[in-house]
Automatic annotation (TrEMBL):
One of its GO terms (cellular component) is membrane. This is NAD(P)-binding protein. Keywords: NADP, Oxidoreductase. Belongs to the short-chain dehydrogenases/reductases (SDR) family. GO terms for molecular function: oxidoreductase activity. Transmembrane segments: none annotated. Putative oxidoreductase. Gene3D superfamilies: NAD(P)-binding Rossmann-like Domain. It comes from Umbelopsis vinacea. The keyword Oxidoreductase applies.
Length: 305
C-alpha cells in the first residue's frame, strides 16, 4: 500500500509542478499598477503580503479591525513605494464589507486582486468543548461553531458577493485569492471546527472557479500548514483551562507564505499546498490509506494511542 501511495504522490507532484503558470497576467496587469485589496492584514500572513505588494509599488487597500495597526501598516506601505489606503472594519459585518467595496471603487476606480487572509482557528477536541463525558461545557460549543464559520466561511463569501462584479467590470485580469489551510484538505484532531470551516471554503470556491471562468476571473486557494503566528492565542474555543495542541517546530514563516500568495496570484495557480510534499502526501494518503493519515495526525497532535 505504501508503494501505491508513493507512486501516486510522485504522479501528483509531477502534475503539480507541471501546471503551466500564466505569465500573461503580469503583462496585462503591471505590478506597479495593480490594485490590490488585502483583507486581514495587520499581522502575520496578511501583513507580509501587503508589504510584498508595497515593494512592487502597487496600490493597496488595507482592511482590518484595528485602526492603529492599519495606520502604522499604511505608513510602511508608503515608505516602501506603494500607495496605501486603509478601511477599518470587520469582514463578518455586511455594512463594513459594503464600505470596503465602495471605498475601493471610489479610490482606485476598481480592483484587480482580492486577497482574503482573515481567519480564525480552533484548538480543542470537540468532546472537550462539549464538556467531556459529563456534558457540562464551560462555553456554548455552538457559539464557537458560529464564530469560526462567520470568519472562515461566511466572510469570504460575503466579500466575494460585493467584489466579484467589481472585479469583472474593472479588471482585465481579475483574481480572487483565498487563504485556506491544509486542514481544508485533511482533518486533524483539535481542529475539527477549523477543518470543517476550511473544507466548506474549498467546496464553495472550487465551485465558483468553474462558474466565473467565462468572465476570466481566476480563483486561487493557498493552503499552508502550521504557520508561525499568534493565531492560536485567539482561538474561538480557547478558555483558561484549554491546552493548545499543535506543532511546535517546523512551522512556516508568514513571509514565505506571503510570497507564495503573490506568486499564486501572478501565475494564476488554482491551488498551492505548503509545504508541497506534505500537502500532496496528505491528499493521496487520504484517498488511498486514510487510516495511515489519521495515525500520522494523531501522533503529530499527541492523540496516538
Amino acid at each position: 500500500m505504501l508503494g501505491y501511495i508513493a507512486t501516486a504522490a510522485l504522479v501528483s507532484a509531477a502534475a503539480y509542478y507541471l501546471q503551466a503558470p500564466s505569465a500573461r497576467r503580469l503583462q496585462t496587469v503591471k505590478p506597479n499598477e495593480e490594485r490590490v485589496v488585502v483583507v486581514g492584514c495587520t499581522s502575520g500572513i496578511g501583513r507580509e503580503t501587503a508589504l510584498l505588494y508595497a515593494r512592487r509599488h502597487a496600490k493597496v487597500i488595507l482592511f482590518a479591525r484595528r485602526q492603529e495597526l492599519l495606520t502604522s501598516l499604511k505608513e510602511e506601505v508608503n515608505a516602501l513605494g506603494g500607495q496605501g489606503y486603509t478601511v477599518c472594519g470587520d469582514a463578518t459585518v455586511e455594512a463594513d464589507v459594503k464600505k470596503l467595496a465602495k471605498t475601493t471603487q471610489d479610490t482606485l476606480s476598481g480592483v484587480d486582486t482580492l486577497i482574503i487572509c482573515a481567519g480564525a482557528i480552533s484548538v480543542q477536541p470537540f468532546l472537550n468543548l462539549c464538556g467531556g463525558l459529563d456534558g457540562h461545557p464551560q462555553q456554548d460549543p455552538m457559539e464557537a461553531v458560529r464564530r469560526i464559520t462567520a470568519v472562515n466561511y461566511y466572510a469570504p463569501i460575503q466579500l466575494t458577493q460585493y467584489f466579484l462584479p467589481l472585479l469583472i467590470r474593472t479588471s482585465a485580469s481579475p483574481n480572487i485569492i483565498v487563504i485556506s489551510s491544509l486542514a481544508g484538505k485533511a482533518g486533524a484532531p483539535t481542529r475539527s471546527l477549523y477543518a470543517g470551516s476550511k473544507h466548506a471554503v474549498h467546496g464553495f470556491f472550487d465551485s465558483l472557479r468553474v462558474e466565473v471562468a467565462m468572465h476570466n476571473v481566476h480563483v486561487g486557494l493557498v493552503c499552508p500548514g502550521t504557520v508561525n503566528t499568534d493565531l492560536r492565542q485567539s482561538a474561538v474555543d480557547l478558555d483558561l483551562n484549554s491546552a493548545v495542541h499543535g506543532s511546535t517546530k517546523g512551522k512556516l514563516e508568514p513571509k514565505a507564505v506571503a510570497q507564495a500568495i503573490v506568486n499564486a496570484s501572478d501565475q494564476r495557480q488554482r491551488e498551492v499546498l505548503l509545504p508541497r510534499l506534505m500537502g500532496i502526501g496528505a491528499n493521496w494518503g487520504k484517498l488511498l490509506a486514510p487510516g495511515l493519515v489519521d495515525s500520522f495526525a494523531a501522533k503529530k497532535y499527541g492523540f496516538a494511542a
